[in-house]
Amino acid sequence: MADLATRTLPLSGFHGGSASASVSPAAPASRLSLRAKPDAVASLSAALGIELPTRPKASASSGGRHALWLGPDEWLIIDETEADLLSSAASSGVMHSATDVSHRNTALLVKGPGAEATLNSGCPQDLSLAIFPVGGCSRTVFGKAEIVLLRTAEDAFRVECWRSFAPYVSGLLAEGAEDSGH
Amino acid sequence: MLLIYCPYCEEERSELEFRGAGDAHIVRPSNIADITDEEFEEFFFLRDNPKGLIFERWRHINGCGRFFNAARDTVSDKFKLTYKAGEPKPDLDAAAPAAALVETYEATESNAK
Hints:
The structure holds two protein chains of two kinds. Chain A is α+β, with helices and mostly antiparallel strands.
């Protein structure tokens, strides 16, 4: 019988959170760091099957695929079904730069009435619904680590961080979740 | 905590997301191979250290990643305005109101005016 390598996620076995906010590792996903000029946006959107947002803090989601605006010419594409994003982008036929960062990033899901307070324990952004609505996304800081934040529901966030920062981010989120109930 | 307006994200963000990146509007000489060591020193190393208004480059490194320019007061640390990289240096004197009152004891508390 062949010995198959098993993939261990950076946060496998992690559990944390409190009664007011749960913190759990997200399932593996494929991710693309995408850079392109404005004239390539339409073709890339068609190739990826998702409209690349062009407004600050905006995201688009459909069928487990998310496109997050990070900068005027930069997006993070996440596909929860682990689809081959790199080939999709390459099929667009227009000038762009795409880097597969599926294994660079890992994600945590923060959910519950205390989710906002949990994130604000280390993130300086205003996360009230009026300023950071559902679907809002931003690259920002959490404590000393860089994260990408996506609001998936009124009381739920997806926190993308680099895998080497995952123990730090998950630990700080767990602390924040403990405090968010008080 | 300072709030800095990012002209690309179009909103105010915490200073924690930003990094300073030195003086703005430093033009690299087009004849860089021909200039003397003194001229190179002037361009590369020497900077003014003004008290008051300064034009600086800033980078929204933990946000959109973009460089932009800012007019800042070195005394109060207040950002007067920020604008996108590549835009011309704004004329602050034209639009700015007269210098704010300096809050000395004589100006605010004392009767000895």
